[in-house]
């Protein structure tokens, strides 16, 4: 679904800022026309539940721990970026693989971590 060309431009190309860019464009539009409502346009959130973002499930079956999981992921990422230098020994090596209809990280990807000096 996240690679559906009818939903996303350049859907098969990884763009880590896909949703951030869409949110920024939506905010700019709302600043230009504060009273204008844009149909079918909402700021995307990691914890958002919708048919376009089915990661957490839908309706009554949506994951109740998604807010906690989102917070923990962000805190772990902050600690890694703040305390560690990260490097890939082979930057050109493939980092993803396709499994069924999903693109997932390769389990043989090597990332080197070194504690930052104070």
UniProtKB/TrEMBL annotation:
GO terms for cellular component: membrane. InterPro entries: Cyt_P450_sf (IPR036396). Its cofactor is heme. The keyword ATP-binding does not apply. The keyword Transmembrane applies. GO terms for molecular function: heme binding; iron ion binding; monooxygenase activity; oxidoreductase activity, acting on paired donors, with incorporation or reduction of molecular oxygen. It is found in: Membrane. Keywords: Heme, Iron, Membrane, Metal-binding, Monooxygenase, Oxidoreductase, Transmembrane, Transmembrane helix. Belongs to the cytochrome P450 family. This is Cytochrome P450. It comes from Trichoderma gamsii. The lineage of its organism: Eukaryota, Fungi, Dikarya, Ascomycota, Pezizomycotina.
